[in-house]
Design a protein that fits this description.
Radius of gyration: 19 Å
Number of domains: 2
Bound molecules: protoporphyrin IX containing FE, calcium ion
CATH class of the largest domain: Mainly Alpha
Largest sheet: 2 strands, antiparallel
Structural class: mainly alpha
CATH topology of the largest domain: Peroxidase, domain 1
GO molecular function, one term: metal ion binding
Family: Belongs to the peroxidase family. Classical plant (class III) peroxidase subfamily.
Strand content: under 5%
EC number: 1.11.1.7
Number of helices: 11
Main location: secreted
Protein name: Peroxidase
């Protein structure tokens, strides 16, 4: 059974340890927040929020995190979970799941960079399976048509509005050049000066595949609604971001969120609460991992 105070008896310092770990990590590595939000999203959409994304591959198993779409997930996000787990194992051994750590840390990071606070139910167990072959078809790609992205979320019970609100996470963080490079030359949805600037920023990309650009060029480190305002000005980065503005199904929500940050925060918070319990495992369907990167 899930509850908001699941660890109040078994690990009373849970909230404090997560909060402290998050604060220290985010201050020393400011890209942690965006990386962790994406890590959590990629965990949840593939078979639920069950920490399956955290497992490392072995000679006998190619794990989720080695699926091509997950290779760009930053080490800092994994490191954050490891640090929190280490601290929690000292205070309350064998008690806190990696899935709960990731869910709570994500919430704290969103709040820390300016986004809304929301409640996270606790009591998830960690899944005993993680396979790279499960990933395909469960995560959206920027080259997918909006209708495909919509149906992918719908298949998991998320409405168009919830999908648009969740996509507002692109108000922080960055994307590697390869994720948007191909459509810069002939896509008329881009502001022309912006497209030129992106071409310059990515010019060396074939030699340097680590080159990347902020998702929200205006306020890249602040969780706000500026991402939605950018879209109407041709300042979206990914093709799918432009799609949110150009598709008649999603455009009304983009416009609402661009105008009304409170509304965006409310809808994002509610959608994140819903995402946070998607496909979770309780009881004997999962375990409390000793290490977040290995099944017990
Ligand atoms: C709607 C379809 C979506 C598509 C096609 C998409 C695609 C992408 C891509 C290609 C990147 C760049 C990754 C890189 O180059 O390292 C990215 C980054 C990011 N995505 Fe999404 N995404 C979507 C929705 C979401 C949702 C729902 C969330 C969270 C709730 C999210 C959170 C993020 C974050 C925070 C980053 C920045 C990561 C970082 O800075 O390390 N995305 N996304
Ligand atoms: Ca998962
Ligand atoms: Ca922003």
């Amino acid at each position: 059974r899930l509850s908001y105070n699941y660890y109040s008896k078994s690990c009373p310092s849970f909230d404090k340890i997560i909060q402290e770990t998050v604060t220290n990590k985010q201050i020393t590595s400011p890209s942690t927040a965006a990386g962790t939000v994406r890590l959590f999203f990629h965990d949840c959409l593939v078979n639920g929020c069950d920490a399956s994304i955290l497992v490392s591959s072995t000679p006998f198993n190619s794990a989720e995190r080695d699926a091509d779409i997950n290779l760009s997930l930053p080490g800092d996000a994994f490191d954050l979970v490891t640090r929190a787990k280490t601290a929690l194992e000292l205070s309350c051994p064998n008690t806190v799941s990696c899935a709960d750590i990731l869910a709570a840390a994500t919430r704290d990071l969103v709040t820390m960079v300016g986004g809304p606070y929301y409640n996270v139910l606790l009591g998830r167990k960690d899944y005993r399976i993680s396979k790279s072959s499960y990933v395909e078809g469960n995560l959206p790609r920027p080259t997918m048509p909006m209708s495909k992205i919509i149906s992918m979320f719908a298949a998991k019970g998320f409405s168009v509005q919830e999908m648009v609100a969740l996509s507002g996470a692109h108000t922080i963080g960055f994307s590697h050049c390869k994720e948007f490079k191909s459509n810069l030359y002939n896509d008329t949805h881009y502001n022309q000066r912006f497209a030129k600037a992106l071409q310059n920023a990515c010019a060396d990309y074939p030699k340097n595949p680590t080159l990347s650009v902020f998702n929200d060029i205006m306020t890249p480190n602040k969780f706000d609604n500026v991402f939605f305002d950018n879209l109407g000005k041709g300042l979206g980065l990914l093709e799918s971001d432009h799609g949110l503005y150009n598709d008649p199904m999603t455009n009304p929500f983009v416009k609402i969120y661009a105008k009304d940050e409170n509304r965006f925060f409310k809808d994002f918070a509610r959608a994140m609460e819903k995402l946070s319990v998607y496909g979770i495992k309780t009881g004997r369907r999962g375990e409390i991992r000793h290490r977040c990167d290995a099944i017990n």
